[in-house]
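pinned: reference chain
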Amino acid sequence: MSTGTTPCGKVCLRVSDKELEGKHIALIGLGTSQIDYVIARENSVSWDETWGCGSSAAAFRLDRLFMMDPASRFFDTEDAGKQTEIMREILPELKIPVYSCELDDRVPSIVEYPVNEVVAATRCAYMNNTVAYAIAFAYWRKVARIDLFGIDFSYKGNLHFAEAGRACVEFWLSKCIEAGIKVGVSPRSSLLDSDVPMHERLYGYHRLEDPKVAVPDGDEWFVCQKSEMETLIERGETTIQSVPTPPEPFKG
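pinned: its structure tokens
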């Protein structure tokens, strides 16, 4: 991705999407588990690119922003609630691609989301929220891995929206996994039951005295008894995902 200027002085972004193939991407939403991205960076974890949704651009250094609502929703209405003022402030100043459903002169770096190409290539048009568009974009561009932070879908008082959005996002994550794209989710997030204890994730088996658990082994997964986990971890044959901790205190 490179930048230049037009004769009128506006920022012009020449976005090369093909450069994303095989890359490691972080995607940040607006939920509480975005803190795990902060902790990961403090612990020297890095990604090839970091993408965000909506007003996450106000807090994080992003390479791409996905904002599938038209910019007019922020500039001309109050419909975006608490995001409204901060989006009015940052959108005219952003120097990264801002993917949206239409162009708007008030956002110099806005680009149209390639919806025609994505739908044609994926043979799917199930995208009912901004996060789903971002993941579909990653799938289309054949990234190697995508890690999700702040994508929690725990909206109390609006259960239909929460469930509908989560179902769509998990659908696209399933397509990514099937295509060989590695998917990581913050352990604080409800997405893919990531915040559910491992021994409770396999329905039915969770009722047994020694339940079966599905555990990772590198890029593969296998199933074992919960009672076998400690031995497998000691042998280095698997690990358990845990909530990240800050780098301090270090050695006490």
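why pinned: The longest helix spans residues 159-178. Residues 36 and 244 are 6 Å apart (CA to CA).
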